[in-house]
Amino acid sequence: MERIKTLKAKLLTGTPIFGIFTRLVDPDAVEALAASALDFVVLDAEHGSLARSDINRIVAIARAHDMPVIVRVSGYHQSEIHHAIAVGASGVIIPHIADGEAAQKAADFVASACLERAYAGMGRAADYRRPTWETFKDEARRQLVTIAQIDEKEGAEKAEEIARASDIDAVFVGSLSLALSLGIPLTSAVELDKTIAKICGACVNAGRRVGVHISKADTLPRWTAAGVNLFVVGNDINLLRQGADRLVGQFRNG
Q1: Are 103 and 162 in contact (CB under 8 A)?
Q2: Per-residue pLDDT band at 197 (split at 50, 70, 90)
Q3: Which residue in 104, 133, 106, 103 sits closest to 120, CA to CA?
Q4: Which pairing describes strands 209-213 and 170-173: parallel, antiparallel, or unpaired?
Q5: Is 90 exceeded by the pLDDT of residue 1?
Q6: Beta-strand runs (E) in the chain
Q7: Residues pairing with 17 in the sheet
Q8: Rounded-to-integer distance, Cα 126 and Cα 77, Å
Q9: Homologous superfamily (CATH) for 2-253
């Protein structure tokens, strides 16, 4: 379970880690991705159509193949966060965090009541309550990743306040939603990048790790220099579509 056990340590020590969003509900897709060089996958329960039963099955398959799964829930909903952790996810991304108080509230829940409920529920994360409560709690706190997502104007304006919340391991920037919230034209990459860079700077000032979504490898050095070390570099649907296009193109174009 090397990838699962070391994900948080890599994140917190600044090691670059790379993952993709997955929205396909078939566990076979994540099983195939587990055979890749990815460091993690993000199950996108915010935008995808993933039900709790889907998350349960996908996490089970991923864990069997040592693939860390971070679940992006739809917001600060305790039942969603608790379910993701209880079935064995390696962490959660909590979107729509508007200020430091909201970030602290989410982090406190993950670190305390969420773990208590996961252990009481006697599920996969708690190894069916075979370890003691203290052993489970200590291991969970060493390995679980709690990420606050900034994706709206209010959060962007209070990025450093959000980043300073204790027990938040990283801040992830939801770039598309952020652009829409700020009224930045989606064609204006320069303006959006400046905004994201400002958020990154605020997180670095607070001593917090940062994650972003990038689609071009040549932008990696710039974002690494800005303090980012968690990179979401695509999604499973585009991988499937683009891979099919490339394959067919090879045959059609010779």
Answers
A1: yes
A2: very high
A3: 133
A4: parallel
A5: no
A6: 17-22, 40-44, 69-72, 91-94, 145-150, 170-173, 209-213, 228-235
A7: 230
A8: 21
A9: Phosphoenolpyruvate-binding domains (3.20.20.60)
8 Å CB contact between 143 and 5: yes
Which positions ≥6 away from 52 have C-beta within 8 Å?
83
Of 123, 34, 28, 37, residue with least CA distance to 83 = 123
Backbone angles phi, psi at 162, to 5 degrees: -65, -45
pLDDT tens per residue across span 78-120: 999 999 999 999 999 999 999 999 999 999 999 999 999 999 9
Domain residue ranges of the chain, discontinuous segments joined by +:
2-253
Q: How far apart (Å, rounded) are the C-alpha atoms in residues 124 and 88?
A: 6
C-beta separation of 229 from 209 below 8 A: yes
